[in-house]
């Protein structure tokens, strides 16, 4: 079969799991052949011989297994990042969190940033790519995540600006460290929330934040305040703005703001703490 015929025939098998079945078959073919999309369309009438390899990927995808895990990569902020099982898959809305951090950091002298829950390292790596004189400490409790984040830092040539540490929040971070900003996309889903089938393949401890869901976020707010760090930027759940806004009243805060994601859901916040 030609590539064109393969795309037409196998896309039918994916119509119930994705709204872009033909595109996903093309992605699998590019992955197998180690080619890009431009090459694919220039060679659409060429024969495709790796049918068995494609069928293995299609069979897993039919079970709602994440595309990113199957091809081992994901796009974030226009860059390609390595992705592996047992580490959270990057989401497009997290780009907004990076945007907000860059806006604050670009005109400051102290560019020391702590990322809590680095996962695949996308936030830290992008900040290092966008702000050349930055110093980042990136922590996670997941050994697989730290290993993958290191790979992504090396892939993008920013490993000299990021220190990776295994730590539960601030536990292994020295209090002598003069951190200007903490940034985090922590677990914030309530424990009893019914996840979509495809998300169930991702690490649960990177998704669920407690009985209510915002417990970890509140811990991060409290610890950041105690450390006298000037800025805290976090992603959050769409229904957590009001309880978190009320919780912020317990702290000395100069200013705070919330932002919405691409779908106009409340998705995160920026806090500027007062200096004691």
UniProtKB/TrEMBL annotation:
Report the domain of life of the source organism.
Answer: Bacteria
Biological process (GO) annotations held by this record are:
methylation
Q: Which residues form a coiled coil?
A: none
Domain (Release factor glutamine methyltransferase N-terminal): residue spans on this chain: 5-72
- Please list the GO terms describing molecular function: peptide chain release factor N(5)-glutamine methyltransferase activity
Query: What is the protein name stated in its UniProt record?
Result: peptide chain release factor N(5)-glutamine methyltransferase
Under which EC number(s) is this enzyme classified?
Answer: 2.1.1.297
Any Pfam family the entry gives: PrmC_N
- Swiss-Prot/TrEMBL catalytic activity: L-glutaminyl-[peptide chain release factor] + S-adenosyl-L-methionine = N(5)-methyl-L-glutaminyl-[peptide chain release factor] + S-adenosyl-L-homocysteine + H(+)
Gene3D superfamilies per UniProt: DNA helicase RuvA subunit, C-terminal domain, Vaccinia Virus protein VP39
Positions of the Methyltransferase small domain: 102-191
**Enzyme kind, highest EC tier:** transferase
Keywords assigned by UniProt? Methyltransferase, S-adenosyl-L-methionine, Transferase
